[in-house]
Structures are given as structure tokens and as C-alpha cells.
Amino acid sequence: MTKANESFQEVSIHISRSSMTTEVNKTGSWRFVRPKYDEKTAPCSAACPAGEDIARIEMLAGQGLFEAAVETVLLENPFPAVCGRVCFHPCENACNRAGLDAPVAIHSLERFLGDGAAGGGLRLSLDKLPDNGKKVCIVGSGPAGLAAAYFLTRLGYLCDVFEAGTEPGGLLRWGIPEYRLPASVLKHDIDRIENLGINIHCNTPVTRRFLKDAKQRYDAVFIGCGHGRSLQMGIAGEELASDGLGFLYHLRRGQISAAGGTAAVIGGGNAAVDVARSLVRLGTTVVLAYRRRRQDMPAFQSEVAMAVEEGVEIMELVAPVRIEADGGESVLTLQKMKVSPAQTGGGRARVVPDGETTRGLKVDRIFTAIGAEALEPWQLPPAENSQTLRMSHCTLTIKEQPMVFGGDLTNRLKSVTDAIASGKQAAMALDIFFKSGLEVIQERLSACLVGKGPALSMARYLGVGRTTRNSHIVLYDEINRDYFLPAARAAATRLDVDKRMQSVAQIEQTLTSTQVLEETGRCFNCGICNDCDNCRLFCPEIAVTLTGTRRQVNLDYCKGCGICVVECPRNAMALEEEP
Amino acid sequence: MRTVLEGSHAVSEAVRLARVQVMSAYPITPQTHIVEALSEYCAAGTMDARFICVESEHSAMAAVIGASSGGVRTFTATSSQGLALMHELLHWASAARLPIVMAEVNRALAPGWNIWMDQTDSLAQRDTGWIQLYCEDGQEVFDTTLQAFRLAESVNLPVMVVLDAFFLSHTFEPVDVPDQETVDRFLPAFSPRISLDLSNPCAFGQMAGPAVYMEMRHDIQKAMQQVPARFEHIETEYAALFNRRYGPVEPVRCDDAEIIMVVTGTAASTCRQVISELRRQGEKVGMLKLRMFRPFPTDLIRRILGPARKVAVVDRNFSFGASGIFAQEIRAALCNRDGHPPVFGYIAGLGGRDVPPETLAQIYRMAKDSDGPEQESVWVGLRD
Q1: Can you give chain B as a three-state secondary structure string?
Q2: Domains of chain B, residue spans
Q3: What residues contact B373, with CB distance under 8 A and at least 6 apart?
Q4: Does the CB of A3 have a partner CB in chain B at under 8 Å?
Q5: What are phi and psi of A495, to 5 degrees?
Q6: CATH architecture of the domain formed by B249-379
Q7: How far is A108 from chain B, CA to nearest CA, in Å?
Q8: Do domains B2-189+208-242 and B249-379 have the same CATH topology?
Q9: A292 has pLDDT over 50
Q10: Any B CB within 8 A of A199 CB
């Protein structure tokens, strides 16, 4: 076919177009504000006691880069499979996504990554700094001790861990029931820590004398003993009650396989709830007696809710008065309590006896779980003095030799993740001390805070990431929600209540990789660049250049219109005045 | 392949076969079905195009202007208020010499709200520099849309393919849809004469002062003047491949006609029936269907209408304070010719009111029984 235009006069196109390149027109001269890449802090990571870089972890997992995602977790927390199960996930409470629909399922995602790392399918590379010749003695192999050993090892220290028990893990191994944390899962996380080159000496109780000797052989000591002894109620007939922590310990050792009957559990913390829920699984009818109101219980509310779901009766506002034997059973006399009339404001209720009212509770067995304390006085941190530095999660003293006290005995919040945070803070504090002395520790640690702290970032300390991260915590209103549609939060498959009663199997399944890829798509990735490229695509001046994965603003042409900043869905950019 | 298609989907099919690369549109009844189908083609992957969602017709036109400046084949569609909102950018598209194709479904303007057939929306845009083609049936809609791309790219002017609301946009008719290979032979890949060059960035649409502006405008008119010959060539090629041809105008039994009725769009189909019936009754009547409105086919109109005794123009539109717009244009085309026939203007079928055969027969009688036009327009069928 002939071309249409051949036989016709040429159509002239006389349009207004510059005859020379517009590159000579440096529109950058019009600018009075300039955009910059300004990564900020995601609220989840600021809320995480371990300061995990959650926004980035979500991004990497969403791209299917599971190795990189796990390595990013492991930079800040050596226990992803454990924390993916037992952490109280304050990250989710802080999640900006809640403003749109529901928080991102960060907790479940961490478990997925932790299990992936345990499954052996991922090839992880965990860097260690070269051996610096210094040795640290770690007392206790709970989450604090193992975290301290882990981070110190990665910083180039040689660590020996001493554990009184037959296996490492401390509270994780003996204090948390199987249905919340299977032993095999814990072992995977601990094996990875041990494989870093840490010597864990079990069946080795540490004494004062041992510590004296340790001073000769080690450059520093970390004490992370945790609570070794349960608190006493101080009531008549107390000897008729069993110790809750002891019960959990024997359960984990496999020494208890049946119970049945009825039981009362006294207390309102996580240990009390663990005891109650474990008893339920052994066929026991359980009443949990707590002196304040249900909402005042220090146990995680989700755990309390599940306990109720499983049939635990919660009796609130009752204080134990005495225990008496009655045949094979015990009678627990409880004083009715009420919220003190002097109570003002919110928070945990102050309670006072409600007149003379008491009630009797007749059960087969009584357990107490009202708290615990240090086994030995030397496990506690010394009083503050010029040679002692008290930090958010541990205390360092250099009186005789460098010693750090951490874990539950120094932490305000007795959570596993806070214990890990304590180990990390201890490792960083010791490293700063050896390099630069006691005086600069606070200042150097401040430079490594995630957001406003108290969580610390090891990536920041090592200078391997997050170094330019602005401490501003991204607000919901700073997210460009035009880019996000409501989407259902991933829900892990859950065991039915009646099935839970028949075994110690975990209640929730780990998310599938399909679920994870969908769920990570819900994450705003607050404050971090995820290469969406909007800044480059929207720039009317084509002034954003991309070299490899690095974006730059060409200030010769950037007019400072701010479109890139507005169109950044996640507030990873900012406008600043011209210098 | 012959298939039963809604008039709107005849447009969509043609756009798909034209391998349009970028589309942008904002939904408005009765146009929506066109772009709805196109967005589904994009989503399903049966069309390798980018559909840009926007918040208004103004932005839709801006988006296709941008894309067309970038050197890709573009399409958009609208109606009524949407077209009115685009007005500013219609001028831009033509003066920037961008070969954009737009389907425009004739719909009445508000208030009062009315979604039905009325030509005032497109005719109000007659001075924007767009080529305008009015269609009679589904097959013509399909064929005209394909031809529109060739025509637009041939003279670097935008083309509006106009179809009646509902009477055409929502009516199902058999349409012959050719295979892609044959369409590709008629309409090869777009080779743009205007496109952005990232390696040599330059400014478009800059200031053009008194020294050059007039020449630029004249250039547009020169391109318009080339349309008839080029369109004829395009139609010849189209007929060779698909065996269909319509012409810029279509005279029916005009050779010996004393009175010629001028009609557009679907009213032409009705009028064919009416003149057959009148001829049977011995009336010397003919019909002229206008397909091309811009550029206005003045020569053809003079040649066909010149010998008639009377011309009766049916306008489904109105220019307030003047008359029906087609009648005005025809008067203007004839007035410099000595002894031209008087032009009777009739207004009918505004805002979707039906124009049945009886109305057209009535118009014929009114023209026949009148010695000369007593007023510019006669409104037919007004209620008391």
C-alpha cells in the first residue's frame, strides 16, 4: 500500500518550541526551599525495646528478600523466633496503619522470619568484628545474658556464659510454657547465638567466690541472673500452697503430666496466667485470684483474654488471708477488696479491704505467682556512685572491675524484649568504656537512640545502617494516604479452644509466605525510602536523577516546588530552607 | 468478524485495534461505557496501553496532551459538561498540533440536568481547531474511529469522533470488526513528528509574540485545508481493505431533488426512510448527511445543494440569539453563490426528544408549503 502522505504537500507544523536546549535555563535559581532525602524513624521501631528497624524489615520481606530481612532483625535482636511468639509487641500499638484500618501484623511477621531463619532455608551472614583480645564473663543464660554475649561477640569480644541450669535459656526455657514457646524454637535461636563462637557452660552455678576468680581471667563481667526466688505472701498456711514458677519449671522438665481437679492461682502477672493456662491444659478447673481489677493485671491483656477463652475464671479484688487444710483439699480465705476512695486519676488501682467481708474458696491445690526476687544479694546492682553508671536497661560499675548488671533485676519492664535490650545496652556500654572511658558512655549511647529512645540501634553504633535516620517519629498525618487503601490485616490460623485443651501445641500457626507478602504490602514503611520512585516520576523539572539505586536532586534545575516531598507516600523526604 | 456491539463498544474496539498507547478519561454518562471497556482491556492485558485515571476531564485532556507530546498514540472520550470543562485544553491540543483522537458522545448541557442527545456540546467547540466527524450508526462509529487516527496523524490535528447519546452510544447493532493484522495494514504504528527528547530538552508552548502568532494560526488553517484531499485518500485505502466508504458528506437522491433535507447523526437513518416514502408519493426530495463538520466541506455543499429549490436543515442544537448551528454554517457556505436556494432552519429533538419519521415529514411539508424562510429557525414540536 502506498503511504498516505506521498502525493500531498507536506503539512507544516509551526509550533512554539524552543530551538535550543532548555538545559541552559537553570531553574534552580528560582528556588528558596530545597527538598532533601530525609529518612525518619518509624513509630514501631521507636516503640520496640530492641529498636528493630521494622519499617525496613517489612520492606525487605515485602520484596521477598527474606535473608536480608532476617539479617536486619538480627542486627538488633538475636531472638526473632522467640520474640515472634512471646513479645508483647508494643510496635503494633504504635503502628500508624491503625489510623487507616488495623496495625500491621509485625509480631507474626517476626515469627515468620525467625522460623525461616530456623528452618535452615536462609543463608544468613552474621558479621563479627575482629577479635579484640578482651574476654567477658556472662552470668546467666537468659535472654539478657545471651543477648549481651551475642552483641559483645559481634563487637569482637570473647564470651563465656555460665548457667546454673542443665540447659541455656533461663526463663525462656523454664518459665514460659510449651504452648507459648516450644523448646525446639528456643533451641534454634540459642544455637545460632552459640554458633557465633560463644561458650555456654551449663550446670555451672556462679558464686561470689567464682566471681572473685573471674576477675583474674576476664576483662569484664555481665550479671543477668533474673529472678531466682518467688516472693512469699506472708499469710498463715502458706506452706500448703505450691510455687507457681516451680510448677512451670517441673512442667517444662516433663515431670508433671496430669493434674485434674480444681485449683486456685494467686497473682496477676504473666507467670500467674501461664500457671493457670497450663493447669487448664492438664484438665484442671482454675480460678485466678487477683487483688486488684482485671484491667490492672500486669499480665499481657491478650494472654488474659485467651485464659478466659480457655475457661480460667478470674476473680478480681480479692486478697489472700490464710490457707487451711480440709481433708485432701485446701481452703483459701480471701478478703474482698475495693478501689481506694483516695484513688485519683487513672493507672493501676490502689485497693483497700472492703470491710470485713471474706470468702472461702475450697480447691484441691493452690499456686502462688505474685512475683519473684533475686536469689543472692550480689546479683543486684550496687547503689549509684561516681564509679557507677545507671542506664535505662542496665547498670555499669567499675569499682573493682567493669561489671554490668542487667536483665529483669534492673529493668523497669520485665519483658523478654526488654531483657534483650538490656544485653545490647550492656554490650555497647562496655565497648564504649573500653575504647573511651566511663564519662562518654551516655553521650555515645545517645547518638545510637532509635527515635527518642530508650531503644538503641546496634546498626547505628556500628555505622552499618540507620546512621542518617532522623529521630523524628513519623506521625499518621505525615503519611500520604492517597497511596494506601484499606486492606484486611493478616490473621494467623488459630487452634480452636477445645483443641488447645488437649495438648500443649502452639495456638497460632506461623504465617505463610503468601500472607507475609500481602501483609508487608500494608506497611506504610514510615519514614524510609522503599524505592517507589515517586519523587523522580513526579518531578516536573526531571531534576531527580537515579544512579543505581541512589536518587539525587539536581539543584541546578530543582525549583523547590516540593511536589516530590508531598508525593513521597511515607515521609522519607523533607523541604528545608536554602542555606 | 461481524459481531453485535453497543455503539460505545464499537469505539472501544476500534481504539484497541488502533493500538493506542496512552488513554486518560473521566467517566460521564453517556460516554462511560467507552472508557470502561478500555480500562478493562488494559487490566486484562488485551491492550498494551496505559490508562491514566484522573479527577476531571480537564486533567484527562491535559494527560493525553502530555502523552501525545511525548510521541505516543492517544485517546480520550467525553460528553457534555466534560467536554465543556476541557474547552481550554482543546485549543491547546490543536495549536500544539497533537494528533489526539477523542470520542465525544453528544449530550445536552445542564441545567436542567439532562443526559440525552443534543449536539450543542460539540458544536460549541467548533472554533477550537479540532476536526469533527459525526456518525450515523455503529459500523460508521467503528470505521470513523480508525480513520480518525490516520487523519489526525496525517495533518497533526486532533479529531473528535461524535456520536449521538443513547440512540447510538447505547444501541446494539451488528458491527464488522476486522482482525488486528488488517487494521495494522491500514493504521501502522505511530511515527510521531512531535515528541519529547530527553537528551535534548526543549520548551513547548512558549511565548509566541505578534511577529509569529498569526503564521502559526495560518499553519493550522493550511492543515485544515489539506484535510479533504487527505481524508479522501484515507477513505479510499480504507475501502480497499474493508469495502466501506462514507465520504465527508453523503447525498441521497439529491440529483433531481427540489428540496434537500440536511441531517446529521442517527437522524440520517430516520430521514433515509422518510425520503423513500416521500419519493414513493412522488415528492422530489433528497437528503444530505453531513459527516464532516470541521473542516466544513463548503465546496461539496455548494455543489450538492446549489441546484436545489429549497434546503431544509434539521438542527438538534441551538445557538441562542441566532439559529441552529448547521443551518447557519450552510447559509454561510451558500451565501456568496448567486441564486442559491433559500435555507430553512428547523430545531428538533433537543435534550433527547425523539425525532420520529413524522417530525421529519412535517419539516419537509413546512419547507415545501412556505414560500421563503420567515424566520431563522422554526422550533418543531414545542409543547404549549
Answers
A1: CEEEEEHHHHHHHHHHHCCCCEEEECCCCCCHHHHHHHHHHHHHCCCCCEEEECCCHHHHHHHHHHHHHCCCCEEEEEEHHHHHHHHHHHHHHHHCCCCCEEEEEECCCCCCCCCCCCCHHHHCCHHHCCEEEECCCHHHHHHHHHHHHHHHHHHCCCEEEEEECCCCCCCEEEEECCCHHHHHHHCCCCCCCCCCCCCCCCCECCCCCCCCHHHHHHHHHHHHHHHHHHHHHHHHHHHHHHCCCCCCEEEECCCCCCEEEEECCCHHHHHHHHHHHHHHCCCCEEEEEECEEECCCHHHHHHHHCCCCEEEEEECCCCCCCCCHHHHHHHHHHCCCCCCCCEEEEECCHHHCCCCHHHHHHHHHHHHHCCCCCCCCEECCCCC
A2: 2-189+208-242, 249-379
A3: B342, B343, B344, B345
A4: no
A5: -70, 135
A6: 3-Layer(aba) Sandwich (3.40)
A7: 33
A8: yes
A9: yes
A10: no
Instruction: Tell me, yes or no, whether A151 and A249 share the same domain.
Output: no
- Within-domain flag for A355: yes
**Residue A59 domain-assigned?**
yes
Q: Is A342 on the interface with B (CB under 8 A)?
A: no
Strands (E), A364-506: 365-368, 372-373, 388-390, 394-397, 403-406
Residue pairs between chains A and B whose CB atoms are closer than 8 Å: 69
Percent of chain B with pLDDT over 70: 100
Find, in chain B, the residue whose alpha carbon is nearest to that of A5.
B154
Is residue A208 domain-shared with residue A108, that is, in the same domain? no
Q: Is B223 part of the contact surface with chain A (CB cutoff 8 Å)?
A: yes
CA atoms within 13 Å, Cβ hemisphere of A208: 5
ipTM of the shown complex? 0.77
pLDDT above 60: residue A6 = no
B189, pLDDT greater than 60: yes
**3-class DSSP state of A384:** coil
pLDDT at B266: 98
Q: Do A16 and B206 touch (CB under 8 A)?
A: yes
B241-268 tens-digit pLDDT: 999 999 999 999 999 999 999 999 999 9
CATH of the domain at A27: 3.30.70.20
* Residue A248's CATH number: 3.50.50.60
pLDDT at A383: 80
Taking residues A494-514, what's their average pLDDT?
A: 85
Are A304 and A357 members of one domain? yes
- Chain A interface includes B194 (CB < 8 A): yes
What's residue A142's pLDDT?
A: 95
pLDDT tens for A114-166 read 988 766 677 778 889 999 999 999 999 999 999 999 999 999 999 999 999 99
Question: Does residue A571 fall inside a structural domain?
Answer: yes
- The reply to whether A458 falls in a domain is no
Cell of B333: 457556505
CATH for B2-189+208-242 is 3.40.50.970
Residues of A whose CB is below 8 A from B198: 542
Query: How many residues belong to chain B?
Result: 384
Enumerate the residues of chain B whose CB falls inside 8 A of the CB of residue A8.
226, 229-230, 233
Condensed to tens digits (0 to 9), the pLDDT of residues A464-490 reads 988 889 999 999 999 999 999 999 999
The percentage of chain B sitting over the pLDDT mark of 90, rounded to a whole number, equals 96
Chain B: closest CA distance from residue A17 (Å): 4
Q: Based on the domain organization, do A102 and A206 belong to the same domain?
A: no
Handedness of CA A481, A485, A488, A489 (dihedral sign): negative
> Last residue of some domain: A472, A493, A520?
A520
Give chain A's domain count: 4
Domain boundary among the residues A520, A539, A568 is at A520
What would the mean pLDDT of A218-237 be, rounded to a whole number?
89
The reported pLDDT for the residue numbered A98 is: 96
A536 lies in which domain range?
A: 22-39+529-577
Handedness of CA A448, A454, A455, A458 (dihedral sign): positive
